[in-house]
Amino acid sequence: MGSNFNLDEVDFSVATFTAVVSDLHLCEAEPVHHAHPLWKKYKTREFFFDEAFKTFLEHIDSEAGDEKIELIFNGDTFDFDSMTFLPTHPTYQVSWLEKKRGLEPEEEKSTDKIRVILDDHKIWCDALHWFIGRGHKVVFIIGNHDLELHWKSVQIELLNGLNLSPEERTRVRFVEWFYISNKDTLIEHGNQYDPYCLCDDPVNPFVIDYNRVQVRLPFGDWACRYLVNGMGYFNPHIEANYVMSLREYVGYFFKYMVRAQPLILWTWFWSSIAILWRTIYSNMQRPLSDPLTVETRVEGIAKRSNSTPRVVRELKALFVKPAGSNPLRIMKELWLDRAFLVLISLFVLLQLFIIIKQIYALSFFWMFIPIFILLPPFILYSRGIESNIGYYKKPNEQILTTSGLIADVGRVIYGHTHDVRHELIGGVEHLNSGTWSPAFADVECTIAHDSKTYIWIHPSGEHRSAKVLKVEKGKVVDFFASKH
């Protein structure tokens, strides 16, 4: 949904300087757990980047001189999925599952969540308030972890939290999944090409759940809410932290979790069942849409994104099929196929043993013989299954090139993968703006994944050029030059 303000008051179709950041994953501050200090350590205030973000805004403001800047937040600016905040005196019902894993994506609950995020990131809010007050424009593109930005009340609460005047609010825009900057750059978060994380229909993002209306969430969001939120030693911002082999999981458990979460297998099992159910159920829910207003919605999306209704429809045609339509794929990602295979096999063997024992006086230990016989093929089956999360998360270069042709631009910028890229493919410049999220390769949060990167698009002769920069130790440096 768009904002309440007149889009004609500010011209978003032209930009001299454009800065693109993505995957900030702003979330609530996790209190330090004294008994288990590594529990969600990456979410504690120690790793807030608000001061670095302030440095970034001051730098680009200085770089642009008297020119105005277009700042693009390219999706996952806020991480509603990682929030476990619970209101003290709620005006709505909170289920037992919400108390354990976080609030549902309903309008009033989402509004409360954005308010908590902004309260915990005052420096970030003050910096962005100053930046907009300088006359610059800001665009929020909705990603997969901040799908709740589709709520109009959440957008208004964000503007209220930034303490913007009515005139300043006209320089802020919310777009559904893509934005075209200065007719030369297509900017998308990129989750629409990931079957695990796409918004099924950003034109009609809401679904009806009996007498409630919710944002339809994909499998990846439910997995983050129901599984990762209950397993605080896994960092959701880097895949190596939660996509492992069986041997790696066992080693990880005994190294970090055996004392803090001895019943982690039970946590994983019931959480995975909840994810499977919610993903399938969400995929079946009826969308909240009115056929008489669909074209109006498309026209509004086109206007906010500086495109045309035709471009909106053609880009939407590139979306992949959601993983929620394939329960077996989800079960394999959650390891539920192997769990059910083991449980069913043990149940069948136990029933056969009970029947045979009525005829022959056998020791219970005889039951282990078929178990040992079946163990090798089970191991072979397990080893033959690989997670597709990383494969699908990586951008499909053909799709990105096609999207650039549809938008009639020579540059495509995306996020979602958290990996910086800058290359020329088929005549189309491809860039990934990286991440600002607290991504660490270790539980102790000492091995940091490259972060705090952004794309700076600036005048270069008759056209504009783009480069990837990084905020490092209070300074801005060239990302690729700093690698050498």
Sum up the structure in keywords.
alpha/beta, Purple Acid Phosphatase, chain A, domain 2, 7-stranded mixed β-sheet, 5-stranded mixed β-sheet, 17 helices, 15 strands, 39% helix, 15% strand
Report on this model:
This protein folds into 2 domains: 7-332 and 393-482, Purple Acid Phosphatase, chain A, domain 2; 335-383, no CATH class. Helix content is 39%, strand content 15%. The chain is built from 17 helices and 15 strands. The chain has helices spanning 50-64, 96-101, 107-120, 122-133, 152-161, 166-169, 219-226, 246-257, 264-284, 294-304, 309-316, 327-334, 336-357, 368-383, 389-393, 397-407, 479-482; strands spanning 17-21, 69-74, 137-141, 172-175, 178-181, 185-188, 206-209, 212-215, 286-287, 411-414, 421-425, 428-432, 453-460, 463-472, 475-478. Strands 4-3-2-1-13-14-15 form a 7-stranded mixed sheet. A 5-stranded mixed sheet has the order 5-6-10-12-11, with helices on one face. A hairpin with a 2-residue loop joins strand 7 (206-209) and strand 8. Residues 1-5 have low confidence and may be disordered.
**Strand percentage:** 15-25%
CATH architecture of the largest domain: 4-Layer Sandwich
Structural class: alpha/beta
How widely separated are the two ends? 44 Å
| Number of structural domains | 2
Provide a count of the helices.
Answer: 17
CATH topology value of the largest domain:
Purple Acid Phosphatase, chain A, domain 2
CATH class of the largest domain: Alpha Beta
Number of strands: 15
Helical residue percent band? 25-40%
The CATH H-level superfamily of the largest domain is: Metallo-dependent phosphatases
Shape: globular
Radius of gyration: 24 Å
Spans with pLDDT under 50 lasting ≥5 residues?
A: 1-5
Output the strand order for the largest sheet: 4-3-2-1-13-14-15
| Mean pLDDT value | 91
Main sheet record: 7 strands, mixed
